[in-house]
Prior knowledge:
The chain is of the alpha/beta class. 24% of the residues lie in helices and 31% in strands. The radius of gyration is 16 Å and the shape is globular.
Amino acid sequence: MSDWLPHEKGFHVSWDQLHRDARALAWRLQNDAPEGGWRAVVAITRGGMAPAMIVARELDIRIVDTISVKSYDHQTQSEPRVIKSPDMEIVGDGSGVLIIDDLVDTGRTLEVVREQMPKAHVATVYAKPMGRAQVQTFVTEVSQDTWIFFPWDMALQYVEPYRGK
């Protein structure tokens, strides 16, 4: 249904689920590591920070940096732009570097990130079909019209039942 509101076709992710899925991502990435292992992790802020921390811990990667790309204003996507770059002396062209984000939606954010680190390995916890081509490794695919609610965006509150009161 195209007239659904984002919360009506939502995929709600708890902290526990995010932790399990990020560990599953690390498990997949260990087999893709270059000879000598991964050199660094670059988290796409803000959503990639929690998964990147978990991946870095699981794979014993000690160099962790961030790249900040603004491409959303609440739930409206806009033209992505880098507002903070990682230490390019460390990450270079991205060889041996993992770029981690929570989700790839249209792939526009990752296009901008790949321009800076074209040889990096890009991994996300969740992927939508339009952005999948920008990601080498992911854990769960959701439909393009699904809105993912991450635990940092949520609060516990009463919800009306579907039927009755």
